[in-house]
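INFO  loader      accepted 1 record
INFO  loader      residues=332
INFO  predictor   begin
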Amino acid sequence: MRLFIVHSAPEESGTDDDPDLISSVAILDQARAVHQAAIELGYQSRCYPVIEITETIHDIIHAKPDVIFNLCEEYQGRTRYELNIASLWELIGIPYTGNPPLTLGLAQDKVMTKRLLQGKNIRTPAYQVFKSVPENVMLEFPLIAKPSCEDASLGIISTRAVSYSLSELKKNVEILLEKYRQPILVERYISGREFNISVFGMPPKVLAVSELDFSELSDTEAKIASYEAKWMPDHPAYQKTPVHCPADIPDELRIKIEDVATQVFTLLGGRDYGRVDMRMDLQGRLYVLEFNPNPDISPDAGFIKAVRASGLSYSDFVEELIQVAFLREKND
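INFO  predictor   done
INFO  writer      dumping tokens
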């Protein structure tokens, strides 16, 4: 079987000036890992970066791969085109791994996701959206500000993303508006524990629940999974927020978390794999922060930790994604 690992082509220059680009460049690690696993599994595998779309379409139609392993999270630096790339695979008619275009678009639009969650009575932090620097706010502090249509914690560079006063919020929103040129989502900061729930397979199965450990952070540091904590291994925030998988939680809580994660995955049309991020407040109430379709699957990523904690190898994971995509097209 011929496999095309089609991935984003990030511009590696300028990474040192803009830390947000680290997660973009990390897609290359994912492509290499999937390629190595595919070769070991016996596939004819090729990594293919999407640089210019007309050339991509021509090459893929000409090569006629049996399956596309879709690792495209952006096009020419624009994450909003992620769903459009998946749409091309639909139009070309070649089976591909991961979530469909509608799911990718819904999940990227954090405000729309929150509206859908509210419509199904699934708790999510109270929020407001601002297209300019706010003069006032109807929410109780502390608050966290983030771009409304990004993922991978883009815009939440450090614990300073949490505001404890209107003046701090104004400053944070102004910075985000200037950099991301999109509405800014401001939501209640939920103090408590944070869980990452990986969902995999069709029908979807919840893998081992992960929990972020904030115990090493000082009292003056907000307990959040900032960009520094996710993508910068040498940064103190990364080193002080380890992830425990499986989480040390009672069965009753685990079942409750799994149920909410499954509801979210189903509601947003999740397919193949995804991650649901939740907070639990001091009263034990669960709040869904977001759904991340096609999350990072590099070998040391949180999703793969959950895969391994559930008894699967990296190769098992890659093999199932490929086979499910291939059979899905045949069945359709």
